[in-house]
Amino acid sequence: MFDRFAGGARDVVVQARGHARRLGHCWVGTEHLLLALSVSPSVGETLRSCGLTVTSIEREVHRLLGWSQDRDRTALASLGIDLDQIRRAIEANFGRGALERTTPPLPRKRTRRSAATQPNDLPFTPAAKKSLELAFREALRLRQATVEPEHIALGLLRAGVGFGYTIATAAGSAAALSAAIEVSLRKSA
Predict the structure, then answer these.
(1) Is 129 contained in some domain?
(2) CATH of the domain at 184
(3) pTM of the complete model
(4) Structural domain includes residue 17
(5) Handedness of CA 158, 159, 161, 164 (dihedral sign)
(6) How far is it, in rounded angstroms, from Cα 30 to Cα 125?
(7) Do residues 28 and 20 touch, judged by C-beta distance below 8 A?
(8) Residue 131 near residue 12 (C-beta atoms within 8 A)
(9) Distance between CA 53 and CA 91 in Å, rounded?
(10) Contact 151/33 with Cβ under 8 angstroms?
(11) What is the domain extent for residue 58?
C-alpha cells in the first residue's frame, strides 16, 4: 500500500514513528499521525489554523493517556523514595554529573533482518491502519494518483476512531475540518 504514498505522505508516517518513540510509546497510533500532520508543510497550516499545534496535541495525548512527567517521581515517592535525595547523594559521593552519560552507547550489532522485522519497528494500532487505508481510498475518491499528507488527514477523520480523531474533533467538527483540508488539497493541486 505504501508504494502509492508520495514523499510527503511517507514523511508523515516516518515522523509519526519518531513522535511515538519520543513520547516513549510502543505503538504508532492516530495521535502520532496527527502530530506528524501538524508539522507537515502541506496540511500543517490548515491544522494549526484550527488550533491543532504540536504542543496542544501532545498536551491532549498526555491527558487522554493519563501520563504526566512526574508519574515516576510520584510513584516512587509513594514508596518513600526521593529521587532528588538519591541524585544529591550520588553526586556527593561520585561528583557532579555522575549520572550523566559521558560516553556514547556502544553500537548495536547489525543483523540481516529486514526493516519490517526489526524489534524497534513500532507496530501501527488498528485505528492508525484504518486511517492509512482510508487515506488511500480518499486519494482514489478524489481521483489522485498518489496519497498525499492531506489524504492521511482525511483518512484519520473518516476513520472516526483513535486518539488522533478524538483530539482533532475536539478542535471542531470532523466535517468542517475535512472541508478545510480538501480546500487546501485543491489549492496545492
Answers:
(1) yes
(2) 1.10.1780.10
(3) 0.72
(4) yes
(5) negative
(6) 8
(7) yes
(8) no
(9) 39
(10) no
(11) 2-68+123-188
Query: E-assigned strands of 68-189?
Result: none
The amino acid at 106: L
CA distance 37 to 53: 10
Residue 159 placed within a domain? yes
Relative orientation angle of helices 126-141 and 149-159, to the nearest 10 degrees: 120
Percent of the chain with pLDDT over 90: 46
The amino acid that residue 82 corresponds to is D
pLDDT of 114-161, one tens digit each? 444 444 588 999 999 999 999 999 999 999 999 999 999 999 999 999
Q: How many domains does the chain have?
A: 1
pLDDT level of residue 65 (50, 70, 90 thresholds): confident
Higher pLDDT, 4 or 106: 4
Q: What is the pLDDT of residue 94?
A: 85
Specify if 107 maps to a domain: no
Distance CA 150, CA 26 (A): 25
What the block records as the C-alpha cell of 153 is 488527514
> Which of 26-40, 41-55, 94-108, 143-157 has the least mean pLDDT?
94-108
Q: How far apart, in whole angstroms, are the C-alpha atoms of residue 189 and residue 184?
A: 9
Is 185 exposed, middle or buried, given 0-12, 13-18 or 19+ CB atoms closer than 10 A? buried
List beta partners, residue 124.
28
C-alpha 35: how far from its chain's center? Answer: 5
